[in-house]
Amino acid sequence: MKQQRVCVLGSTGSIGENTLDVIARHPERMSVYALSAYSRIERLVAQAWDTRAQVVVVPDAAARKRFEQLWPAGRKPPEIRVGAQALEQTAADDGATTVMAAIVGAAGLPAALAAARAGKRILLANKEALVAAGGLFMQTVREHGAELLPIDSEHNAIFQCLPQSGQAGAPSEPAKGVRRLLLTASGGPFRTMALDLLSQVTPDQACAHPNWRMGRKISVDSATMLNKGLEVIEAHWLFAMPVQRIQVVIHPQSMVHSMVEYEDGSILAQLGQPDMRTPIAYGLGFPDRIDSGVGLLGLTALGRLDFEEPDLQRFPCLRLSFEALGAGQAACIALNAANEIAVASFLDSKIRFTQIAGVIESSLGRITGCATPSLASLEDVLALDAQTRRVAAEFCLEMA
Ligand SMILES: NC(=O)C1=CN([C@@H]2O[C@H](COP(=O)(O)OP(=O)(O)OC[C@H]3O[C@@H](n4cnc5c(N)ncnc54)[C@H](OP(=O)(O)O)[C@@H]3O)[C@@H](O)[C@H]2O)C=CC1
Ligand SMILES: CC(=O)[C@@H](O)[C@H](O)COP(=O)(O)O
Ligand SMILES: [Mn+2]
């Protein structure tokens, strides 16, 4: 068994912390090579100390200085690299065999793509990378023989339920015998709240997910169900599945993480506690199954599993996501970028929860109404992403 040396991009976040928890359980199989943080430098220092990481990546000179000041005397500090380009360089570094892509938002795309170009084992949590540049990313994985393992719980579940070829790559057609992918969704904290109360909800209420503990951005996405929309687009790219063959099913308990429906009428499901250490351990251990630290699911204590149709009136962001996937890549880039701006604005108490969908819809209208630029390269994608952010920020200001 080859020792894995893991580069954890976004190590100070929710996925990053869970990844370090799993790695620490398997010193004989894996170790940390590199870590990255954006604002939580103190936490990064503690992580680097505990894991003996060789490299850390921070965003700027001020963060570097802070890291140096906080590093305890008496032990050699890790190499400190600075800036977005250093993230790409570290993701592609010979020192790493495996890259956990756990930066939030499209900011994580360049480093995830660099890992693919370098032919790494990529554990992909950063769904926004696929939403913005799914075609480019999957093509890069294919061309450079990278190994791609989905970490997002639903996609990890689907990966586990698909006919196993023992390979973790980038399929160019749907798996044989599969009729549909059934993506489960909790419905978030506002699934049953009276519709007229939704405009009053606070950021903390939106971040109080009923089943999962996650970062604030994805928690708001779960509350609007834009998260499920991003996941439909993610599933389309990961499994080469046409949008008509992807169904979203509300499952409030978040115990069935997703399902694959086969031509013969069988449905295969993956179940487990809502704890991201299970998919993370699956990715780190693949093809072996390794301990994740997650307890067993008590089915008799649970008693029942519920399923229902999503309500597109309550969750307009889900409708917008299906429409964007149908409209093409420019719309998907705009959907994601406008959402990132709208969610940040909501978390900052500048716009209301119910205005998030409006910002996205207006931005999509403005961007996709213009001539679609070429989107063949990372630079093209990032240019449209930046343009959308400017437009969405204007709409947020108008609504504030
Ligand atoms: N949390 C979960 O359970 C799940 C998350 N995902 C996906 O995984 C990704 C990470 O989510 P989550 O861990 O919840 O997010 P968090 O907000 O908890 O963590 C995000 C990480 O990214 C870093 N970061 C933020 N902005 C930048 C930037 N501009 N450049 C570089 N690094 C940055 C943060 O650094 P710092 O903290 O130092 O500021 C942090 O390490 C998202 O794409 C999410 O959709 C998917 C499924 C489940
Ligand atoms: C843990 C995970 O994968 C999240 O994306 C989670 O699925 C969010 O839950 P819902 O979006 O279904 O509420
Ligand atoms: Mn998910």
Could you please describe the fold and organization of this structure?
46% of the residues lie in helices and 14% in strands. It is of the alpha/beta class and 400 residues long. A seven-stranded parallel sheet has the order 4-3-2-1-5-6-7, with helices on both faces. A four-stranded mixed sheet has the order 9-8-10-11, covered by helices on one side. Helix 6 packs parallel to helix 10. The termini are far apart. The site of NADPH dihydro-nicotinamide-adenine-dinucleotide phosphate (NDP) has 26 residues, from helix 1, helix 6 and helix 9.
Concise overview:
Catalyzes the NADPH-dependent rearrangement and reduction of 1-deoxy-D-xylulose-5-phosphate (DXP) to 2-C-methyl-D-erythritol 4-phosphate (MEP). The chain is an alpha/beta fold and 400 residues long.
Which CATH class of the domain at 4-161 applies here?
Alpha Beta
Proportion of residues in extended strands: 5-15%
- Major sheet summary line: 7 strands, parallel
Bound molecules: NADPH dihydro-nicotinamide-adenine-dinucleotide phosphate, 1-deoxy-D-xylulose-5-phosphate, manganese (II) ion
Helix proportion range: 40-55%
Keywords: Isomerase, Isoprene biosynthesis, Magnesium, Manganese, Metal-binding, NADP, Oxidoreductase
EC number: 1.1.1.267
Organism: Eoetvoesiella caeni
Domain DXP reductoisomerase C-terminal: 271-390
Keywords:
11 strands, alpha/beta, binds 1-deoxy-D-xylulose-5-phosphate, 400 residues, globular, 7-stranded parallel β-sheet, 4-stranded mixed β-sheet, binds manganese (II) ion
